[in-house]
Amino acid sequence: MVQHTPYQFNLTVPAILSFFKNAVALYLIAFCGGWLAHMVDFPAAWLTGSLLAVAITSLTRFKFRLPILLRDIGYAQLGLIMGSGFSPEMLHAISSWPVSILFLALTVVAIAASAYFVLRKVGGWDHPTALFAALPGALSYVMIIAEESKADMTRVAVAQTLRVFILITLLPLLLSPFTHGVTAGAAGARESLDLIHLALMSAAVLVVAPIAVYLRLPSGLMLSGMAIAGPLYLSGIYHAPLPVWFSVPAYLTIGIVIGSRFAAISIGSLISLSGISLLSLLTSAAVSALAAILCAEILGFPLGQVILAFAPGGFDTMVLLSFLINLNPAYVTGHHLVRFLGLVIFAPLVTARLTRSESSSKGL
Predict the structure, then answer these.
(1) How far apart are CA 234 and CA 221, in angstroms?
(2) H or E stretch including 362?
């Protein structure tokens, strides 16, 4: 989840130069990575390529930082993009989602338990660290909540960041057989949405987004864009895809945001903690895949979309992947939103219990 920070506009010459220096450097690196991935026809190229490029440079102690304003614009754009992946055909399947969501709820518990077991029993991590490192999704939110406990934040950061990074990098490849070669990139051959209607949607987001931020809605900027574009595309009022020139900058922004997280992790910590973190990820991913296969078989849903809906990745990135690789964005969004909201409710309760336990042990 993205935490909104109030904008602080500094209009001095040094501040303006710093703004553009950070923005130009980061987007240039992200664009080069995305362009290379696009040239080799990598699935979800602009997202995965930019993420890899920025992550690699961040590990070398790259000092540039994405301005908050550009980050928030990117998340609002992302909401519009994901909402444009909806269609009237998706409406008829909504009635069958409750059973699938029940499967998901049980799966999330199994995913967290399996990852926790590996980190706690195999890796020897302490209870708070293993618990927060095992929670699947809502990376930024979990990191903020974990800081209120006695968790080792370096270990939590490595485990959580590697999980998101690897899933975003590998899932487009692993799920490509389920897309039958059709991705969001193929939509470029169709006529894209005209500038007037795109401007109207963008203006609507400018009205809704501040309300969502004021109400402290989780991922409010992104959900604002989805709330505007989703109904228009679900109803069939809009059907043309968004233009590439509008979409690509949003993909680059998300790649920068995720890739930049590696700047806070030393190469030594990454190497020393990657083994147990990867084992934890493989275990939880296997649990997720088995549950998705079972759900797809029982309910008759397409396997690819269920795997993506059950994948232990972040809400925003998993939903974006569903759009990019054409796997029912409405279904994936609904499931990841339920899981995300569950974590938002559950994580603070866990922290409160841990804090009480720590206080009691000190009093004895």
Answers:
(1) 20
(2) helix 329-363
DSSP state letters, 122-168: IS---HHHHHHHH--S-HHHHHHHHTTTT--HHHHHHHHHHHHHHHH
- Integer Cα distance of 118 and 123 in angstroms: 6
Task: Tell me how far the alpha carbon of residue 352 is from its chain's centroid.
Answer: 26
CA distance 201 to 192: 14
Q: What is the pLDDT of residues 236-266, one digit of tens each?
A: 899 888 998 998 999 899 889 888 878 777 7
**What single DSSP character describes residue 187?**
G
Q: What is the pTM of this model?
A: 0.72
- What is residue 205's predicted lDDT score, i.e. its pLDDT? 95
- Rounded Cα distance, 127 and 146, in Å: 12
DSSP 188: G
SS3 of 247-309: HHHHHHHHHHHHHHHHHHCCHHHHHHHHHHHHHHHHHHHHHHHHHHHHHHHHHCCCHHHHHHH
Q: How far apart are CA 117 and CA 128, in angstroms?
A: 12
Give per-residue burial for 122-149: e unless 16+ CB within 10 Å, then b.
ebebeebbbbbbbbbbbbbbbbebbeeb
Q: How far is 35 from 16, CA to CA, in rounded Å?
A: 28
